[in-house]
Amino acid sequence: MPEGYAGEGFFATSLSKAVGTARANSLWPLPFATSCCGIEFMATMATDYDLSRFGMERLSFSPRQSDLLMVMGTIAKKMGPILKQVYTQMAEPKWVIAVGACASSGGIFDTYSVLQGIDKVIPVDVYVPGCPPRPEQIIDGIMKIQELVKNEPLRRRYSPEYQHLLEKYQIA
Ligand code: SF4
């Protein structure tokens, strides 16, 4: 329930809060998994940790139908443009989690061939630390995204700041 005023037979809130609550509880994740962190995500989806407790277990492998990009694993520099293409194919509003050390910073692979963090090619909203992160950490990352989504103003995606961010990544 979003913040608002409740009384005998009525509840009032702002449109922004109602939309934020609806979006936060209906995220459709796109798992972009390339290595071991992806296996940890499978455990997060399985019965012990049960990501579907949020009612948003419907993973989408189509960028056009998802709004939460979860990048899990080592991303080679050659894969950077593909990751960016997947991101640009997703409709607004969209959010990104970098799951694990490799996606966040290149991890232990400080080499010529590995992207030193996906934020070199796309904007990231939440970073989940760990090599690999435990399922609890992945769930915590998703809950942080939910908080961002709930509190995002409806006009943010049209703001000059957001356009500037996309321009910086040559996405606009
Ligand atoms: S952070 Fe660790 S567990 Fe995750 S993909 Fe990299 S090496 Fe594998």
Low-confidence stretches: none
Instruction: List the bound ligands.
Output: iron/sulfur cluster
**Helical percentage:** 25-40%
Counting DSSP E segments of at least 2 residues, the number of strands comes to: 6
Describe the fold and architecture:
- This protein has 6 helices and 6 strands, in the order ββαβαβαβαβαα.
- By secondary structure, it is α/β, with parallel strands linked by helices.
- The protein has a single domain, classed as Rossmann fold.
- Helix 3 links the parallel strand 4 and strand 5.
- Helix 1 packs antiparallel against helix 5 and helix 2 packs across helix 5.
- The longest helix is centred in the last third of the chain and has 17 residues.
- The structure holds iron/sulfur cluster.
- The site of iron/sulfur cluster has 11 residues, from helix 2 and helix 4.
